[in-house]
Amino acid sequence: MRINAWHPFVATFHDEFASKGAGQPLELFAMAEVLAEAQLYGLGLKEDQIDAFLSARDQLLRYLATASGRQGAFAAALALQDARNDSDALEDKLCGAFTSLGYDVTPSVERTSRTVWRRPTCPPTRRESPANTV
What is the pTM of this model? Predict the structure, then answer.
């Protein structure tokens, strides 16, 4: 079985799925998805009905990943990769990545089309060793 690690739901909750202590192995979730789809075919539903169900389920999972407000390491990496060619989007995604690591992120200046940008400051939210600071 192949699992689409690029799907926003999987990327967002990858850390929980990968954690053996969390009790949410990704393989079980993926197997349940395959069995649900097989059951739809077994019930004799029409192809367009199955496609509509699978599409609605996919959109729901994407919404849940986005609405959760969480961003795991894999999701942060995907967001950074997607934003690499847009400086404004890249700044947003970098701030999001640092926020997911536990830092408070405050951009230095307001965005306007004529503003010269300074890098956002990302101080650590808790006292840690210098090796863990930006």
Answer: 0.52
Range of the domain at 27: 8-67
In angstroms, how far is CA 25 from the centroid of its own chain?
Answer: 17
- Which DSSP letter does residue 130 get? G
- What pLDDT, on a 0 to 100 scale, did the predictor assign at position 123? 53
DSSP 1: -
Q: Per-residue pLDDT tens for 103-123? A: 777 765 655 444 334 455 555
Please choose, from the candidates 1, 23, 5, the residue with its C-alpha nearest in 3D space to the C-alpha of residue 14. 5
Same domain, 62 and 77: no
Please check whether residues 86 and 103 belong to one and the same domain: yes
What is the percent of the chain with per-residue pLDDT over 90, rounded to a whole number?
19
C-beta of residue 37 within 8 angstroms of C-beta of residue 54: yes
9: exposed, middle or buried (C-beta count within 10 Å: 0-12, 13-18, 19+)?
buried
Nearest CA among 114, 117, 92 for reference residue 105? 92
Mean pLDDT of 55-75: 81
